[in-house]
Design goal:
By secondary structure, the chain is an alpha/beta fold. The chain has eleven helices and eleven strands.
Length: about 300
């Protein structure tokens, strides 16, 4: 069978990691557990080299985030300004700790499209236990302030989503996570301006415990290696947003052209292996292939 069938058009979704470093020590994250050796802040020079390769493209979405806390990068908003004209939608994810008045103003001035705020657990106390370094009350006050200021300016963006990872009672839970009552209560005054995205914790690649796939899943398809390209802080290209620790580096943009990397031998083999259900270790636990989100067992033990 010809390998050309695994060539793909250059994707319309781009992820860029401003910072893999983080100011939190979350119990459900390889970075928080000191399992991530690829930590750093993207330099201006690295970003400029990346931008020169992508500036002629028009993306549907650019996510200025991969892992870590992106606002730790002092050039975050300069990056955002350069990227906004080449995408229909600009998104990021933040732990919310750095949302002071100055940062909020920058998000509003730029008319940043979407921001996901991470607040985990089934209570404020559990959020602070899971997300070591987080202060639920302080962060939610900052988020509400940003929403109110946005509305005072008659802006429709940024859209705010509260991403809420929960560690379930049963570590093999496959059901859809509910929106915790404490979140709807906290944001009741701005409830029409907030979207909630609850989910059960998954087992990140690189975590100590893993569950191997037993049988071929029904879908056996990965959208990430077809429609998204992810660039880490040092220019490394990895297959997806779940590879926080460089388990599978497809190439580096400081050494090779991004369009050549997208259809190089590594990517071609990766797509072929997924198609033939021969997933690498990076993918064996992945809920994208599995069809559901597994609970992360080590996090389950920590909280229970």
């Amino acid at each position: 069978m010809s390998m050309k069938k695994y060539n793909r058009q250059f994707p319309k979704i781009l992820r860029i990691e401003p910072a893999s470093s983080c100011n939190f020590k979350c119990v459900h994250c390889p970075t928080g557990l000191n399992l991530n050796e690829s930590l750093g802040i993207m330099s201006t020079d690295t970003f400029n080299q990346i931008f020169e390769q992508i500036k002629h493209h028009k993306f549907d979405v650019i996510v200025l985030y991969h892992g870590g806390e992106p606002i730790l990068n002092k050039q975050f908003f300069e990056m955002a300004k350069k990227l906004k004209p080449i995408t229909k939608k600009l998104r990021t994810t933040t732990n919310g700790s750095l949302l002071d008045d100055k940062i909020i103003e920058k998000f509003l001035d730029l008319e940043f499209d979407e921001i996901d705020i991470s607040l985990d657990g089934s209570s404020p106390e559990e959020n602070n236990l899971i997300r070591i370094g987080s202060d639920y009350n302080e962060i939610t006050k900052k988020v509400i302030k940003m929403i109110n200021l946005r509305n005072e300016r008659n802006l429709t963006v940024p859209k705010i989503t509260i991403a809420n990872a929960q560690i379930p009672e049963d570590m093999n839970t496959e059901n859809i996570a509910p929106v915790p009552k404490h979140l709807t209560e906290t944001f009741k005054q701005v409830i029409d301006d907030v979207k909630f995205s609850p989910f059960y914790t998954i087992q990140w690649p690189g975590m100590p415990e893993k569950v191997d796939m037993i049988e071929k899943p029904k879908g056996n398809f990965c959208d990430h290696i077809v429609n998204t390209i992810s660039i880490r802080w040092n220019g490394d290209v990895v297959p997806c947003c779940y590879d926080l620790i460089n388990m599978m580096v497809m190439g580096n943009m400081l050494q090779d052209n991004i369009e050549q990397i997208w259809n190089n031998e590594k990517y071609i083999k990766f797509r072929k292996d997924i198609d033939e259900f021969n997933p690498p270790d990076l993918c064996k636990n992945c809920f994208v292939l599995q069809g559901f989100k597994r609970a992360r067992t080590n996090s389950f033990k920590i909280l229970k």
